[in-house]
Design goal:
324 residues; mainly alpha; 10 helices
């Protein structure tokens, strides 16, 4: 998946994916090098005996030159035979010699009573007292700062949650008004510069579009996209601006994207369910108005990774980090 941008096989059910693993050969994207393609082909052989037998062979295969023979069983390339017995054992390091400390000379016992033990005891007690006071004085500001930071973070999260709630309420009113007047807003593309979109956003968009097309979109599909983080959110919002909401299939995809965005950001106020029939003009207006609301929300509240984490924290989707 890291090399190709997708898993080897997909399907509408787990059974179809397992069947493909048994009977089909994966398709390779054109950007793979010859070495990468050869390594993947050997790793995904149906017969386990035909695969690499150790991690050392895979590392050697990736480090081999492009002209190394494949499957010849010689050299250190892709076809190299596995090393018998694994890597050589690490040399045993003998423990450092232990020299017994010399015996502590005993001082001659004083016949007269000395005040030295009393002075030594007083000095040690005083030193311990000073150390304890210093530690207590140093711990209090840390605790106070941590508590203040926690309160400040909670207050900021409350303010952000209130502003998001106001935004969602306003967007819902706009969607209802657009449906009543049957005047959908003019959709605009997501401003990539305003949201600091990553350069590989198209790769995320392909994965988002692929999962949005499944017939039955579940919470598991949403969690799979949620693991991709903010780039997947931006890809979903950008895709919403390009759908044709007069088409039933596009409305279903939009409903799936609404579920994913609501689960990832922690609220479901911006969602439109598809009726399963050809969309009416009012339904088309609601879908378009909701897509425009997601774009405005992304450009206003998810402008960078820190803002994305703040939105999730405000809705209980992540735990705030307290800096001590």
């Amino acid at each position: 998946e890291l090399l190709c941008g997708k898993v080897p096989f997909t399907g509408d059910s787990e059974w179809e994916v397992l069947k493909a693993h048994e009977t089909r050969q994966p398709e390779w994207p054109p950007h793979l090098t010859a070495v990468e393609r050869a390594v993947l082909q050997r790793c995904l052989q149906k017969d386990p005996a035909a695969r690499f037998q150790s991690v050392h062979d895979i590392v050697a295969a990736f480090g081999a030159q492009t002209g190394t023979a494949i499957g010849t069983g010689t050299g250190t390339g892709i076809g190299a035979a596995p090393r018998p017995g694994g890597p050589p054992p690490l040399p045993a390091v003998p423990p450092p010699p232990f020299d017994a400390p010399p015996p502590i000379p005993t001082a001659p016992r004083l016949r007269r009573r000395s005040l030295l033990p009393a002075f030594a005891l007083a000095f040690v007690c005083g030193l311990l007292g000073i150390t304890l006071v210093w530690l207590l004085a140093g711990v209090r500001p840390v605790r106070t700062t941590a508590a203040a930071t926690t309160r400040a973070g909670a207050s900021a999260g409350t303010d952000l949650g209130a502003r998001l709630a106001q935004f969602v309420a306003s967007a819902q009113r706009s969607a209802r008004l657009a449906a009543q007047r049957q005047r959908p807003p003019r959709l605009q593309p997501l401003d990539a510069a305003a949201v600091a979109a990553p350069p590989d956003l198209d790769l995320y968009r392909q994965q988002v579009a692929q999962l949005a097309d499944v017939p039955e979109f579940t919470a598991g599909h949403a969690r799979r996209l949620e693991w991709l983080g903010r780039p997947a959110v931006l890809a979903a919002v950008a895709l919403l601006q390009e759908l044709d909401y007069e088409d039933l299939r596009h409305c279903r995809r939009a409903a799936h994207l609404h579920d994913f965005l609501g689960q990832t950001l922690g609220f479901d106020g911006l969602a439109v369910e598809s009726s399963g029939c050809d969309p009416t003009p009012a339904e088309t207006c609601r879908f378009a108005a909701t897509a425009d609301a997601w774009r405005r929300l992304a450009e206003s509240f998810v402008r960078d990774d820190a803002a994305f984490r703040a939105v999730r924290i405000a809705h209980g989707k992540a735990v705030a980090e307290v800096v001590r």
